[in-house]
């Protein structure tokens, strides 16, 4: 029999399932080309051609399919370390890197390593709600803290939420769903507050930075380094979004070499990576991405989609903050009822996610990692919905 806990979890996440089912039904009834599905962060763009070229070369190598050290191939970790040393402005070596099964795998590995039963992990609203399940997987609890109106972190509220049970905080910048990049001053004040609170509570509060959208940024905005700002930091990421390969399950985590109790931390993480069940990250992908450091899909194409949507949504009267990164718009739900807007858009065969799916009702999320034809085809439906809502058109 399915456990009570899992049954409750299935119920509480059922609206996403419902939307998925609705989408499938609509596509069957009206044809997939007549349904405008902005619901999932599952990129439609092909990976760069060089990805396929390297993948085929690596697949032709013989005898390279066996278990390897649980942290991953040393050669891959060397190359990742060299790349992130410049990205994070911190000297990182292969020993600090663990190859993981995507960012989700990286986060679970870290959480399993640091959580004691009943511990809390802080996250700022709005956020990726899988964090709640990831914390629960390891006997912890997600402690959600309100963000500022512009989706930046509210350092005062985070400080007030910290207790001796706080094992860490997860931040995600560029952020899903808001597209916000936290400025360097925010990261610095978060770091000094965490140093103060770690002293007060008597435990190192870890800063876990979930960065799968780091390369999907616009207008040359720089994503600040957490490693540069705070020594008890761990970066988790993947190639899911920037190489358009989420199904291949490849990512890594990097432990700040200056972290306190470093040896126990990295060894604990390597153990947890092994015992979570996937043993090591996929071998062929590790060998492939080793050659693709710094490569990404064409970000200009996402910028074009962002700008096209921004212009039209604003013209129709929708209110939003322009995303600085990611491929998401987080739009105000006119009147504040996110479910009502989701339903009205569904009538136009447009699928979006209500803000409550990110713990912030009053908004809805548009994932624009779709073909241009989906954006173009949906414009009439967005316009009619805005008219029904009586929005002031430009
Ligand atoms: C903020 C955030 N973190 C983590 C993940 C999981 O990424 P991966 O597919 O690499 O496990 C996602 C996926 O959508 C995400 O949006």
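^ Assign residues to that structure.
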């Amino acid at each position: 029999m399915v456990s009570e806990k899992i049954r409750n979890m299935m119920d509480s996440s059922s609206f996403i399932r419902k939307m998925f089912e609705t989408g499938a039904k609509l596509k069957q009834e009206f044809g997939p080309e007549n349904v405008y599905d902005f619901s999932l962060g599952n990129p439609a763009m092909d990976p760069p051609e060089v990805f396929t070229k390297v993948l085929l070369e690596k697949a032709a190598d013989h005898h390279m399919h066996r278990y390897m050290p649980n942290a991953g191939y040393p050669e891959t970790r060397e190359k990742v370390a060299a790349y992130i040393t410049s990205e994070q402005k911190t000297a990182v070596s292969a020993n600090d890197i663990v190859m993981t099964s995507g960012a989700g795998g990286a986060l679970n590995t870290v959480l399993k390593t640091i959580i004691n039963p009943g511990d809390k992990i802080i996250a700022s609203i709005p956020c990726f709600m899988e964090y709640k399940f990831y914390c629960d997987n390891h006997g912890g609890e997600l402690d959600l803290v309100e963000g500022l109106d512009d989706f930046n972190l509210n350092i005062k509220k985070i400080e007030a939420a910290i207790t001796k049970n706080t094992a860490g905080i997860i931040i995600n910048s560029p952020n899903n769903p808001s597209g916000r990049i936290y400025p360097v001053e925010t990261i610095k004040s978060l770091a000094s507050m965490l140093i103060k609170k770690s002293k007060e509570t008597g435990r190192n509060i870890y800063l876990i930075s979930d960065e799968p959208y780091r390369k999907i940024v616009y207008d040359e905005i720089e994503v600040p380094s957490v490693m540069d700002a705070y020594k008890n930091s761990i970066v988790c990421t993947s190639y899911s979004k920037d190489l358009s390969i989420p199904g291949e399950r490849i990512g890594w985590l990097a432990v700040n070499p200056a972290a306190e109790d470093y040896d126990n931390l990295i060894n604990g993480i390597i153990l947890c990576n092994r015992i979570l069940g996937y043993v090591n990250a996929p071998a062929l992908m590790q060998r492939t991405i080793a050659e693709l450091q710094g490569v990404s899909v064409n970000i200009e194409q996402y910028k074009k989609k962002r700008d096209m949507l921004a212009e039209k949504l604003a013209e129709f009267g929708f209110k939003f903050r322009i995303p600085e990164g990611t491929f998401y718009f987080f739009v105000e739900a006119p009147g504040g009822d996110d479910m009502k807007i989701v339903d009205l858009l569904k009538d136009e065969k447009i699928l979006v996610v209500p803000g409550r799916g990110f713990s912030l009702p009053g908004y809805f999320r548009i994932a624009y990692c779709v073909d241009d034809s989906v954006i173009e085809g949906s414009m009439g439906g967005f316009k009619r919905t805005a008219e029904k809502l009586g929005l002031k058109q430009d």
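Residues 41, 102-104, 128, 172, 176, 210, 212, 238, 240, 246, 251 surround pyridoxal-5'-phosphate (CB under 6 Å).
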